[in-house]
Request: fold
Amino acid sequence: MKRNWLYFGVAGAVALALLLWTANQALETVMDPVDGPSATDSASLPEALPVREALPFPTLRGPLHDTSVPPPLPTDWHRYSAGGTNRLAVLLTKTDSAWLGLAHGLRTIGVPFLLTTNTAQALAHRVVFVYPELSGAVLDGTAIRALAAHPRTGGSLIAANVLGGGLEDLFGFREVVASSSHYEIGFATQHALTAGFTHPHERVIRVAEPSNPSAIAGKRHYTGPVVPPLAVYEDGTAAILLRPWEAGYACALGFDPGYLLTIGYHNREEGIARAYVNQFEPSLDVLLRLFKELYTATAPLPVTLGTVPFGRKLPVVITHDVDYARSVTNALAYAEYEAGAGVRATYFVQTKYLRDFNDIAFFGEGAVPVLQRLRALGHELASHTVCHSMRFSSFPFGTGTERFPDYQPFVRTPLLTLGASVLGELRVSKFLLEKLGGQEIVSFRPGHLSNPYSLPQALVATGYRFSSSVTANDSLTHLPFQLVYDRRQVAETPIFEFPVAIEDEEKPLLFERLPQAIALAHQLARYGGLMNILIHPDILGHKLQFEQEFVVAVQHFAWFGTLNEYASWWIARNEVSVDAELTGGSAHVTLTAPQPLNGLPLQIPPAWKLQSVEPAGLKITQTSSALIIDQVPLRVRLHFQR
Ligand SMILES: [Zn+2]
Reply:
């Protein structure tokens, strides 16, 4: 539904506005399911012009500083070029490729890697990933011959798009054929590397929209595979070849994984996903987990990072969108229950100080004690915009001088909002919540998950750090990811996105979907995907009951925290570097953690025995699959007997 709306041009929107104005009820059925409460009593609200009421908080004015947004600074691939030879080496054969998506994905899944354009440097690593292409067009004969020898001498060679160079025998195929019609990849062959892919949406992943597969460019298949392919397209042709060699593999992918990751991370999947929300859609996660399995199976010292604090199985972040008059007081009932259950949640609050089409001005003096109580109970206050417009994604960017009380956005109809801007929504809501709630505001979620292309840089410029503005299904991933400028450029921003897994507006009622939500929690717990649950506190009843029973059902394996807590941990983990070397029978692992973090899970081979640690006295606990470092200092050395 949301996608259909995005396709409307301005002209179409204007033409439809009149029709929809008189058909608000019909509109309810086509709105984005992740949305404000649909039960607003809009009949009693003004539909024409702003009502000039006295604004609340007469002594407040701000923010007083202006916001300026610097131009994009392209990210240099050298940012990811440091590290030792135990890492996965990505041999970058085209620097104008989607390598940033691949780099972000490998960080997310916790595989230590580096990028290089130098074949000899790459071949010093046991595991080499040639990206985005292996051919005579991008590598000379000497380099190709050296790469070809690597699997025959104990290394592993993974390559996206093997297009030439006489390597058919090495990877085990006859020809590579462009095949734009393909849209699904299935792991048809039983193999240890893919044994963890047990759900139907893991056994078969989506790489294009079935009705428009050629929209995703660059897909190919390999003919005449000499061993059964690891994965095939929907017509049975080979998508991923995996030929065993001495101690490793030659693995050829018939697609560009960085490009696929980029499509999901940029929220441009355009119909690839099998659902919009509430389902399990791990297409990108499966690819990342496959790379992690390949690395773990073939690296000399396979040490990787887990995705959940303290080695728990599932990170759960409960989020509430307070975007309706009654939600303000209802929020306290959720908050008191959560505090009693030891759960800290995130409250995305709309600072609605103007009455409009949507609702009355519920963000006034009466909201202040609510904010302060939420904070006192340990919850996070976050921004859910000022005016909660469906049109947020097409708002003008703004001047960076918007301030309360002069900034007066007015939602006149679902398709028409006056006087609003992206920067205004971000600046003014943050200012009011900080002044009145007494907590720094770092997390943002737009109404209707309406997502402007300029959002990443706008968030940076206005002082936010975390976004929860998309669904996991719509992003093809249940793991967090780093946003780039304009959701398009090769220019990283420091903003990370934490997508919504479960929401409360799709039918049937949320409580009736409890078994499916618990089932999703178990699917995600197998690899540490994020369970970000959105519950509007517009009612208590079955929604509160859902939350209570969900918490009980998962608390024995889940970690709970606010978005700020999980995201801060995630970003610190993202900067952790992992290197390892071997002397005699001992493995020496070096971690560098530029930002402090607690409860870092280090995944090591089960047979390894920890012998000593520097600095001495670090608290470390060992679980069946990971070593948990309680408080991670800047640099840690771990010595293991293998
Ligand atoms: Zn909302």
The chain has three domains: 2-60+309-569, 77-305, 575-641. The domain at 2-60+309-569 is CATH 3.20.20.370 (TIM Barrel). The CA atoms of residues 592 and 635 lie 5 Å apart.
